[in-house]
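Re: that chain you flagged

S.,

Sorry for the slow reply, it's been a week of failed gels. I finally had a moment to sit down with the sequence you sent. For the record, here it is as I used it:
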Amino acid sequence: MAQVEATTERIIAADAETVFDALADYSGTRAELLPEHFSEYEVREGGDGAGTLVHWKLQATSKRIRDCLLDVSEPTDGQLVEKDRNSSMVTTWTVTPAGEGKSKVVVSTVWNGAGGIGGFFERTFAPKGLGRIYDAVLDKLAARVAG
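Prediction finished late last night. Pasting the structure tokens below so you have them in one place:
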């Protein structure tokens, strides 16, 4: 079983604090950023950053739907970590300053992939598919926070 990783990054025309606050706002802004791949979004505890428990279904492909129940933590400033209670999937959002009035957002998801031929296809295609999904989230985020 090999670890699979998908990483996407973007420079956004807003300061890091504004961008981080938008990402950490699970009870408000976050739901607005999700593309059609996400359904059944529900904040079950908290709603702002660390201590939040959030649920959604992620449809990565026409056949693959993940039922995600995520515990949110903030291990360091500018970082949100979403750990799925239903799988090995962990998504880390890192927001850092990138010059005046700009920030860099890096989103990275890792999970334990399947073995055998299925695992080969998962490691080959899943990162690209998840990357496209996160590109859509980052597009919406950039439009939402741009001054």
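What I noticed first: The longest helix spans residues 116-145.

Talk soon,
D.
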